[in-house]
């Protein structure tokens, strides 16, 4: 399979999940995250779920991070440059959905990518080597390549690892971990 075929397959799989399944699997992923050796860090970047795409609901993870007094960062995407601007999540952060239904902060305190310790990465599929398939726009490859080399990249997936695909590129940034409802994949 190639990335295009994987996108079609995993979008269909996600779309077949009920709201209850998404909620249960998202909570299972959040609970499993507690087993990762990442909780001594300070700056955590998290994506805000696109409910219309049946993504992993990151609300339980946001509550965990907040309860652990972590600095939480959320992004706003520039679809012309493929850049992401990272904002510190505060009680005053206001959100607006963009044209792609992504909840984004309206404004706030920006934080450079170099400060980020842990990134929770959205994806459609991943393999047993830590390669990942997203929506194909390149936002996360660009963002992750601008992070420090020791920044920990954690994928979140409803599904287990896929077979390795044909079109893995050198510019693709690999994950350090991927967490599913059933297990943790460690690629270190």
Automatic annotation (TrEMBL):
GO biological process terms on file: folic acid-containing compound biosynthetic process; tetrahydrofolate interconversion
The keyword Transcription appears for this protein: no
EC number: 6.3.3.2
GO terms assigned for molecular function: 5-formyltetrahydrofolate cyclo-ligase activity; ATP binding; metal ion binding
Reactions the enzyme catalyzes: (6S)-5-formyl-5,6,7,8-tetrahydrofolate + ATP = (6R)-5,10-methenyltetrahydrofolate + ADP + phosphate
Gene3D superfamilies in the cross-refs: NagB/RpiA/CoA transferase-like
InterPro entries per record: FTHF_cligase (IPR002698), FTHF_cligase-like_sf (IPR024185), NagB/RpiA_transferase-like (IPR037171)
Binding-site list for ATP: 3-7, 132-140
NCBIfam families named among the record's database cross-references: MTHFS_bact
Family to which the UniProt record says this protein belongs: Belongs to the 5-formyltetrahydrofolate cyclo-ligase family.
Protein name from the UniProt record: 5-formyltetrahydrofolate cyclo-ligase
Provenance organism: Flavobacterium pallidum
Upper classification of the organism: Bacteria, Pseudomonadati, Bacteroidota, Flavobacteriia, Flavobacteriales
């Amino acid at each position: 399979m190639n990335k295009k075929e994987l996108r079609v397959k995993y979008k269909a799989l996600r779309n077949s999940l009920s709201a209850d399944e998404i909620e249960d699997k998202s909570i299972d992923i959040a609970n499993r995250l507690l087993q990762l050796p990442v909780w001594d860090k300070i700056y955590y970047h998290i994506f805000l779920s696109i409910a219309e795409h049946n993504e992993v609901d990151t609300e339980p993870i946001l509550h965990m991070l907040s309860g652990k007094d972590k600095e939480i960062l959320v992004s706003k995407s520039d679809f012309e440059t493929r850049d992401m601007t990272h904002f510190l999540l505060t009680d005053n952060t206001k959100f607006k959905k963009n044209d792609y239904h992504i909840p984004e902060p309206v404004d706030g305190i920006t934080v450079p990518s170099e400060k980020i310790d842990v990134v929770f990465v959205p994806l459609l599929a991943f393999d047993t080597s830590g390669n990942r398939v997203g929506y194909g726009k390149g936002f996360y490859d660009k963002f992750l390549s601008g992070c420090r080399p020791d920044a920990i990249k954690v994928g979140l997936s409803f599904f287990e690892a896929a077979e390795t695909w044909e079109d893995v590129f050198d510019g693709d940034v690999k994950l350090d971990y991927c967490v599913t409802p059933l297990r943790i994949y460690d690629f270190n």
